[in-house]
Write a sequence for this structure.
């Protein structure tokens, strides 16, 4: 039987509820809050008067865990004699020695699965299935099924497949989080009778499932009478202030000029609606009821707004209250924020990242196709940096670095999909949120969201796309303007990170066909299909053997793909121009600081060779690291300037904070660019540092070493160091030495090392980079380790596959 109490293998969550009646938290004389800047009520629970009811004990479910460490498991193999792709029961082996449930795909590709009987639960009482597993070989994904009908005789199941959780195939243990409310088909209303867990793959492999845990939804809201959770509805993630109904939170607030309150409503289950009320009482008067609504949609946020202008300048008691027929039901107030007429000079900030936008393919930087005419016009109104660099070559380490101003080796989030930011690190969004800004993140790249821990500090976040990647700017801009309508207060901070120029390069009209005619597009699609069918690494990698097997011309393929990239870039540039025009039309442009940049570049230049020249893929190579960087702030930054000073993306955070008049970060490896932007003294040029964790074999996700690199004027150098102390460094096949030196004036793409010609430079930069590495590791110890492995949702992993990061 599964554990439901205090047994050894049961994951316990301690519910801190009250023994009886209602409970009052807070102090007798609550602190008065002001809303001169947007006031985030969820950040001030410490001064709120909170009244809360207890949760009935008989409804407090506990997690259920199966660990497979004892014989006699209740899990059974699934078979289907009529479907050859479903493997036989012999492909499941339960090992009581700690090996877990071994699902074997070693002899044949297909699907191996097992199931367990459940006592007719209501699936809506459960939030997640957590699967701890280690996978290797050709296993692609874990997949649950939520059956409301029994499997006849252990045969194939009839209903309710859940989302795939694509696995990390490195032989080590990872935890995968799969929501129970995301599956193919209509909502489940019948009792939940069986849980199925399986693994599928397209090649030989195996997976050991060490444990399966069901997490009750109530466990997510058991921290106290009120708290904060990050919740997903549809495609939007919001910072939610939760209460257990009946409950009440009262704040003492001074209402600003043209005061308003913006907030969202949410509930957990369709049969557990809640009534939300807002009352205001001034100067001891009777409370005035301003809002009263029964809300019961668990699949969407209900966005609302209240006019508080009649209370302008008055100190009031503002009360958020909930009630429900079922005591203990959870009610969610999302991003409840007070704002009013703008009384400060702090700028709005739009931090716009073109994901994968290489500077060398932008006409702003001299490219021969007119891919970025709007960015050219924007640069004419502000400052563009001719030599700006990302600090890593792909999204996760690059983005986490520039939003914290700390290098990847300091942050410790080395693993591709499982490490988040350390808890003590403060992100760009958190800096602005703590200063009173409205904060929003709009992206279609999951590495910019929950997988990396970057939801922190955002009122609203979107990390999943409903359209293809190449249409991301269209929907992200729509989301941005919807957010501005819902939360119109100022100042605001918006991080927009589009994936238009990311794989699979499928621009919309009228940009489709701009540089590649229809016949060329058909040829590219056919080549791409044939390359994919080889089953070898993605054709975006120049060392793939797929070209030899298919006899497809490498230069022709990458020439076509480069033209599609240019079309996507032109499309994103046009959308950016439209965003700016609307900011102007809405009257927000004069108060807005716009930064346009990229998280990394693209490698088309080297892919035109057949075979490609030998190179060790250093981060400092121009195709990877040379990115756009443009600052525009009307009336504050003198426009029309091109600056040649070398700068990097980790300089952006301290720059934005200084321009906004905020305190600098306590720990920062970047330096503020304000002296350059505002024509002030105090700028001291310094080398640009790059770093990134890598594996020896690109097909093997096991991290073995770090690249730490420097671009120092004419010279560049790349040093390899072991990722783990005491482990001997093993060089990749194309690496002639642990340290490589390049002449970046003559060889900007770092294709030919000059170690033999300049041994003096090799000695100099070896010592320099070794000292940098030691400093990074010391700072990493100060910052602390990463927050721990984060379970991956199926949609996040599917998004990463669509972007070409994982297969």
């Amino acid at each position: 039987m599964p554990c439901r109490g205090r047994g050894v293998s049961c994951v316990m969550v301690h519910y801190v509820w009250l023994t009886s009646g209602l409970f009052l938290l807070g102090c007798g004389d609550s602190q008065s809050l002001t809303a001169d800047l947007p006031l985030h009520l969820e950040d001030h629970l410490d001064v709120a008067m909170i009244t809360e009811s207890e949760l009935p004990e008989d409804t407090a479910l506990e997690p259920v865990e199966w660990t497979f460490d004892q014989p006699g498991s209740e899990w059974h193999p699934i078979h289907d004699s009529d479907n050859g792709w479903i493997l036989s029961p012999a492909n499941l082996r339960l090992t009581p020695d700690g090996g877990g449930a071994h699902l074997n795909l070693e002899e044949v590709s297909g699907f191996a699965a097992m199931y367990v009987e459940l006592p007719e639960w209501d699936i809506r009482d459960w939030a997640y299935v957590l699967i701890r597993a280690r996978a290797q070989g050709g296993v692609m994904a874990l997949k649950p099924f939520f059956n409301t009908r029994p499997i006849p005789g252990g045969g194939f199941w009839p209903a309710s497949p859940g989302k795939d959780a694509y696995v990390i195939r490195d032989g080590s243990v990872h935890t995968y989080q799969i929501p129970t409310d995301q599956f193919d088909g209509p909502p489940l209303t019948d009792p939940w009778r069986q849980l199925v867990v399986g693994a599928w793959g397209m090649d030989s492999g195996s997976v050991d499932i060490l444990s399966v845990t069901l997490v009750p939804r109530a466990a997510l809201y058991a921290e106290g009478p009120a708290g904060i959770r990050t919740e997903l509805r549809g495609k939007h993630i919001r910072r939610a202030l939760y209460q257990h109904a009946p409950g009440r939170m009262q704040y003492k607030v001074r209402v600003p000029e043209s005061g308003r309150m913006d907030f969202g409503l949410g509930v957990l289950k369709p049969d557990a609606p809640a009534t939300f009320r807002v009352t205001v009482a001034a100067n001891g008067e009777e409370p005035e009821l301003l809002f009263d609504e029964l809300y019961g949609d668990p699949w969407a946020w209900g966005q609302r707004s209240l006019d508080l202008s009649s209370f302008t300048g008055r100190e009031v008691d503002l009360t958020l209250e909930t009630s429900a027929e079922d005591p203990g039901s959870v009610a969610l107030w999302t991003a409840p924020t007070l704002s009013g007429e703008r009384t400060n000079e702090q700028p709005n900030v739009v931090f716009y990242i073109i994901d994968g936008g290489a500077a060398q393919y932008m006409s702003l930087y001299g490219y021969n196709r007119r891919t970025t005419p709007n960015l050219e016009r924007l640069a004419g109104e502000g400052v563009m940096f001719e030599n700006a660099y990302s600090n890593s070559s792909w999204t996760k380490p690059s983005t986490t670095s520039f939003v914290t101003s700390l290098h990847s080796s300091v942050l410790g989030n080395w693993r591709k999909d499982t490490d988040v930011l350390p808890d003590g690190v403060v992100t760009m969004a958190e800096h602005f949120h703590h200063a009173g800004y409205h904060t929003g993140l709009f992206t279609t790249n999951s590495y910019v969201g929950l997988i990396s821990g970057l939801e922190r500090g955002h009122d609203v976040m979107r990390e999943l796309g409903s359209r293809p990647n190449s249409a991301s700017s269209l929907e992200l801009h729509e989301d941005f303007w919807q957010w501005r309508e819902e939360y119109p207060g100022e100042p605001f901070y918006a991080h927009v990170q589009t994936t238009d120029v990311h794989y699979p390069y499928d621009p919309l009209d009228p940009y489709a066909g701009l540089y590649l005619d229809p016949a060329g597009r058909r040829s590219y699609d056919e080549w791409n299909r044939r390359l994919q069918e080889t089953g070898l690494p993605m054709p975006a990698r120049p060392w793939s053997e797929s070209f030899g097997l298919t006899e497809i011309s490498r230069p022709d393929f990458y020439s076509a793909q480069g033209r599609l990239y240019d079309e996507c870039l032109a499309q994103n540039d046009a959308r950016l121009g439209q965003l700016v025009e609307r900011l102007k039309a809405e009257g927000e442009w004069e108060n807005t600081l716009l930064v346009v940049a990229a998280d990394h570049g693209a490698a088309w230049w080297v892919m035109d060779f057949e075979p490609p020249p030998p190179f060790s893929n250093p981060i400092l190579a121009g195709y990877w690291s040379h990115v756009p960087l443009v600052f525009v702030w009307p009336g504050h930054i003198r426009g029309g300037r091109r600056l040649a000073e070398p700068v990097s993306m980790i300089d952006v955070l301290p720059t934005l904070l200084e321009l906004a008049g905020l305190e600098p970060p306590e720990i920062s490896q970047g330096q503020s660019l304000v002296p350059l932007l505002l024509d002030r003294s105090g700028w001291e040029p310094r080398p640009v540092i790059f770093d990134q964790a890598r594996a020896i074999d690109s097909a093997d996700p096991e991290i073995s070493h770090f690249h730490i690199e420097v671009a120092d004027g004419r010279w560049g150098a790349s040093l390899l160091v072991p990722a783990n102390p005491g482990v001997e460094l093993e060089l990749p096949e194309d690496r002639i030495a642990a340290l490589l030196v390049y002449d970046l004036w003559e060889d900007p793409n770092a294709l030919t090392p000059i170690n033999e010609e300049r041994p003096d430079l090799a000695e100099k930069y070896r010592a320099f980079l070794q000292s940098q590495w030691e400093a990074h590791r010391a700072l990493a110890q100060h910052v602390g380790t990463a927050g721990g492995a984060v379970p991956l949702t199926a949609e996040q992993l599917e998004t990463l596959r669509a972007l070409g990061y994982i297969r």
